[in-house]
Recover the amino acids of this structure.
DNA sequence: ATAATTGCATAGTCAAACTATGTAATTGAA
DNA sequence: TTCAATTACATAGTTTGACTATGCAATTAT
């Protein structure tokens, strides 16, 4: 039993559960690739296209670090670069077909681990999981909507 | 819109939501400490006490790496080591009072970010979030129960 | 037009992870 | 019991990878 504990239904508890679910799935899906690279692929996929500096910001790393990461992904043929017609300084990064496939594979590998768990649930429990997914999705929508209100912060 | 997509209510979607929620909270709570160290504290807290090699296993790193991490935590006075009376080779790691406080602080910092989000929800929505927390907790219970059945794997 | 800014790349330093190996304690077999 | 095998952890040395500082080219502002 953990020493520290928190009330039921609290935000802290949700975070705790989310972190542990993440960790469990990561632990039980052996994936040869560095997770940091997969996250970059995932971000580019989410945005359709992205700039190096944007990726550095969301990945919480410096811009040179992201530059080298992207170079590695490009060397593997998973990311393509095209110059932005509106701004010749910037380079728009997109996923290649192979990059999409690798990302899909990574996601499927992780999903299978979770599916194996859900297979041990009965129908109403699985329905609860789907409801939970929708609920957390709604929470994320609020987060992303909220983000736009605070984009002018002091650096 | 992302190129790759998956069906609603699927395990993949749950993982996606969970990862993004995690990332959003991490991104919006500025914490001066390396997250890897907090995760170690969290694991020791979860187990009450732990060995270096156990922590290395769950943290997906080599044993020497975990040794140095633990040494850093011990140097900060957050982790205490005691020799296992049943096995003089092993050292049992526990959280100190300060370590507990640091961990609680880290969790509270992250929780506040999520609470700010939930404050923008109405009562029934918050109730849904609590239900989601319980559901994912149940999923984790299945995971942890399942773990005991596969502890004799081929390395 | 020129200064300031922005986006990315490169250079160099440093922290941190890994492999290989060593030491001490425990377990098992002859 | 005694000696080999195993286990838990620590140490040494190498290498990967992240950061700061800086440079160059394109863009924006005055």
């Amino acid at each position: 039993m953990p020493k520290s504990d928190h009330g039921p239904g609290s935000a802290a508890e949700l975070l705790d559960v989310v972190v542990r679910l993440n960790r469990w799935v990561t632990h039980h899906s052996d994936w040869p690739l560095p997770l940091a690279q997969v996250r970059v692929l995932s971000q580019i996929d989410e945005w359709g296209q992205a700039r190096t500096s944007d990726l550095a910001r969301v990945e919480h790393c410096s811009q040179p670090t992201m530059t080298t990461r992207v170079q590695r992904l490009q060397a593997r043929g998973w990311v393509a670069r095209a110059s932005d017609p509106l701004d010749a300084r910037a380079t728009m990064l997109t996923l290649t077909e192979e990059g999409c496939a690798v990302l899909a594979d990574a996601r499927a590998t992780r999903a299978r681990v979770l599916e194996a768990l859900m297979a041990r649930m009965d129908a109403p429990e699985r329905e609860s999981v789907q409801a939970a997914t929708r609920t957390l999705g709604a929470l994320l929508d609020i987060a992303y909507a909220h983000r736009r209100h605070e984009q002018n912060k002091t650096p």
Summary: Residues 51-53, 63-64, 67-68, 71, 87, 89-91 of chain A lie near DNA strand C (CB under 10 Å from a C1'). Confidence is low (pLDDT under 50) at residues 151-155 of chain A.
